[in-house]
Amino acid sequence: MKRKMIRSVFMLFMLALFACQTDDAFRGTELEGLPTTDFTLTDQHGQPFTLSEQKGKVVLIFFGFSFCPDVCPLTLSKWKQIEKQLGEQNSEVEFVYITVDPERDTQEKLKTHLAVFSDSFIGLTGTPDDLKTAYAGYGIYREVVKVSEGAAGYLVNHTSRIFVFDRAGNWRLGISNDSSVEDMVHDIRLLLKG
Q1: Is residue 61 part of a domain?
Q2: What CATH number does the domain containing 173 carry?
Q3: Is-contact 65 165, C-beta < 8 A?
Q4: CA pair distance 98, 161, nearest whole angstrom
Q5: Are 141 and 156 in contact (CB under 8 A)?
Q6: 8-state DSSP, 36
Q7: Residue 193 DSSP class
Q8: How buried is 95 (Cβ within 10 angstroms: 0-12 exposed, 13-18 middle, 19+ buried)?
Q9: What band does 34 get if pLDDT is binned at 50, 70 and 90?
Q10: pLDDT value at position 40?
Q11: N or C: which end of the chain has fewer CB within 10 A?
Q12: What is the spatial distance between Cα 107 and Cα 165, in angstroms, rounded to a whole number?
């Protein structure tokens, strides 16, 4: 009887220890040690946005385009849910959407498109050279594909990961766009504790 009780207490202790460790572990892919490529692009309001000037906040970056039929709107919808779940902490997080379709994603188009999800989301575009710097710095794959039917005329195949930077401006995480809202909120809160 005594052995069973000791065993039960030990099992409860181990479960509690495991739960604590899991709570403090990132659910996205940790990328410590990778260099952060700084860039300056233009937001949907015509203002310059420089990544290195965002220190003090957790920054999420996604590369997408407004004509995207699936991954991009789904990611923006998740960001909207994340914003809601973060509550007051939301002011300490920047959600940044960089176009991979600068020909169609003008400042005005980005402004209209992002407003459907949140007025606080930042949409960025820029010159071809400035965008290439951002794409190259984060290994962004981008390919224009002609489509025979539909008003779009073409789509853009692109990398669909979310890049996350901590308050010090370090590139800390890569998160799959199909990760759950709960997992993303968990990781953002860990970085906010930082």
Answers
A1: yes
A2: 3.40.30.10
A3: no
A4: 12
A5: no
A6: P
A7: H
A8: buried
A9: confident
A10: 97
A11: N
A12: 24
User: H helices then E strands: how many in the chain?
Assistant: 5, 10
Task: Please state the pTM of the whole predicted model.
Answer: 0.86
Contacts of 189 (CB under 8 A, 6+ apart): 86, 89
Residue 143, phi-psi category: left (phi > 0), alpha (psi -120 to 50), beta (remainder): beta
Phi-psi region of 161 (alpha: psi -120 to 50; beta: other; left: phi over 0): beta
Residue type, 155: L
Q: Which token pair is 187? A: 């990781």
Angle, in degrees to the nearest 10, between helices 181-193 and 71-86: 50
Residue with tokens 């809601």: 84
Which CB contacts under 8 angstroms, 24+ apart, belong to 136-140? 136/37, 137/36, 137/37, 137/38, 137/39, 138/37, 138/61, 138/63, 138/163, 140/63, 140/100
Domain total in the chain: 1
pLDDT in tens, 42-56: 999 999 999 999 999
- Domain residues for the domain of 152 are 30-193
* Distance in angstroms (rounded) separating the CA atoms of residues 125 and 130: 9
- Segment 145-184, tens digit of pLDDT: 998 776 678 999 999 999 999 999 999 999 998 999 999 9
Domain contains 116: yes
- In degrees rounded to 5, what are phi and psi of residue 166? -85, 180
Distance between CA atoms of 131 and 128, rounded to whole angstroms? 5
